[in-house]
């Protein structure tokens, strides 16, 4: 079964809009990666101030391949002297999961 990688972003309240706009501006950057299955940006409503960047992949290899290549481009790779806007997030942590059970609504 698939694997889930969640990037947990700590985002100060006044930076939420900036963060969401930046994600909006980068829509489509992960969609065609081999083994990519799902992405959701989850905005906290209650119980936490952390945004979750939920991604699901066919397997660990697909995720690693994306991380080593396209992901860096999608995150503007840093360095190289380029002017880089200050991140809206003040911290990030990567969580890894295996999907053990799943369900989706019955069709028809
Ligand atoms: C689960 C895999 C992912 C990892 C490990 C990851 C890594 C990171 C990290 C470390 C940051 C912190 C802020 C920074 O330095 O820019 C960040 C922010 C960001 N990521 Fe990702 N990311 C992941 C998935 C994605 C996906 C799928 C997208 C695009 C659809 C994306 C787009 C962005 C954007 C727009 C920011 C906001 C930068 C800011 O203003 O704080 N990320 N990501």
UniProtKB/TrEMBL annotation:
<dbReference type="InterPro" id="IPR007138">
    <property type="entry name" value="ABM_dom"/>
</dbReference>
<keyword id="KW-0560">Oxidoreductase</keyword>
<dbReference type="GO" id="GO:0004497">
    <property type="term" value="F:monooxygenase activity"/>
</dbReference>
<feature type="region of interest" description="Disordered">
    <location>
        <begin position="72"/>
        <end position="92"/>
    </location>
</feature>
<dbReference type="InterPro" id="IPR011008">
    <property type="entry name" value="Dimeric_a/b-barrel"/>
</dbReference>
<keyword id="KW-0503">Monooxygenase</keyword>
<dbReference type="InterPro" id="IPR050404">
    <property type="entry name" value="Heme-degrading_MO"/>
</dbReference>
<feature type="domain" description="ABM">
    <location>
        <begin position="3"/>
        <end position="93"/>
    </location>
</feature>
<protein>
    <submittedName>
        <fullName>Antibiotic biosynthesis monooxygenase</fullName>
    </submittedName>
</protein>
<dbReference type="Pfam" id="PF03992">
    <property type="entry name" value="ABM"/>
</dbReference>
């Amino acid at each position: 079964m698939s694997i889930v990688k969640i990037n947990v972003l700590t985002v100060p309240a006044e930076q939420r809009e900036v963060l969401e706009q930046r994600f909006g501006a980068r829509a489509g950057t992960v969609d065609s990666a081999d083994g990519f299955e799902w992405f959701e940006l989850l905005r906290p409503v209650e119980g936490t101030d952390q945004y979750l960047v939920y991604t699901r992949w066919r397997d660990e290899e697909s995720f690693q391949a994306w991380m080593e290549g396209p992901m860096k481009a999608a995150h503007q790779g840093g360095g190289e002297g380029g002017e880089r806007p200050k991140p809206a997030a003040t911290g990030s942590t990567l969580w890894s999961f295996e999907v053990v059970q799943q369900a989706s609504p019955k069709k028809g």
